[in-house]
Design a protein that fits this description.
This protein is mainly alpha-helical. The protein is built from six helices and no strands.
């Protein structure tokens, strides 16, 4: 159900009404995101956020904000400008599809 919801939200974020491609998102994430955000969206860099499990609409909206300049970050501005709307939707769906768990400290 969560995977379906992630795909639905990613498709809706584009306004195009078609489902995102998880495999394309996985491949693009390895090319554009893994250095800082890790291969599965768990940040490798201490100042990068985790993307795994984030809602697709949130990831897509933030990537678009970096791309259009309304959100500022030197590295993300450069990376996001190379992404098409479909690639953003695919990345958003990929990160949303990754299951994560949180455990309270004991």
């Amino acid at each position: 159900m969560k995977r379906f919801l992630a795909l639905l939200l990613a498709a809706g974020a584009s306004g195009m009404g078609h489902a995102a491609d998880l495999e394309a998102g996985r491949v693009r994430a390895q090319q554009a995101c893994a250095v800082c955000h890790g291969p599965l969206g768990i940040a490798a860099a201490p100042d990068a956020p985790n993307l795994a499990g984030q809602p697709a609409f949130y990831v897509a909206s933030q990537l678009r904000a970096y791309r259009n300049g309304s959100r500022k970050h030197e590295v993300m501005a450069v990376i996001s400008k190379t992404l098409s709307d479909d690639e953003i939707n695919n990345l958003a769906a990929w990160f949303a599809s990754i299951r994560i768990e949180a455990h309270a400290p004991r």
